[in-house]
Amino acid sequence: MADQAADERLRLLIERIERLEEEKKGIGDDIKDVYLEAKSAGYDPKAMRQVIRIRKMKPDDRKEMEAILDVYLTALGIA
Fold first, then answer.
1. For the chain, which has fewer Cβ within 10 Å, the N-terminal or C-terminal residue?
2. Residue 1: pLDDT band with limits 50, 70, 90
3. Cα gap 32→7, rounded to integer Å
């Protein structure tokens, strides 16, 4: 009986993960559509992705990353 309960729980967990994976795919498709819409409106999707990546960062991490980038660009004579 306990094995049946464990099997049922496992089945339910697997089905839940499968549903969430399907939702994740749908959301990914929606995000792709928004980037396509932005591109057709004249925006640069690569730049938008970078902005989103930067906005996710903590302020201190962003400042550190920008400082390191500045040092590297200066060392390469780009800045």
1. N
2. low
3. 37
d(CA 6, CA 18): 18
Spatial CA neighbour of 36 closest among 48, 18, 25 = 48
* Cα gap 70→28, rounded to integer Å: 33
Taking the model in full, what pTM does it have?
0.72
**Token match 């697997």: residue?**
14
Residues in the chain: 79
pLDDT in tens, 16-74: 999 999 999 999 999 999 999 999 999 999 999 999 999 999 999 999 999 999 999 99
Query: What's the one-letter identity of residue 45?
Result: P
Q: What is the 3-state secondary structure (H, E, C) of 32-53?
A: HHHHHHHHHCCCCHHHHHHHHH
Residues with Cβ < 8 Å from 62, sequence gap 6 or more? 54
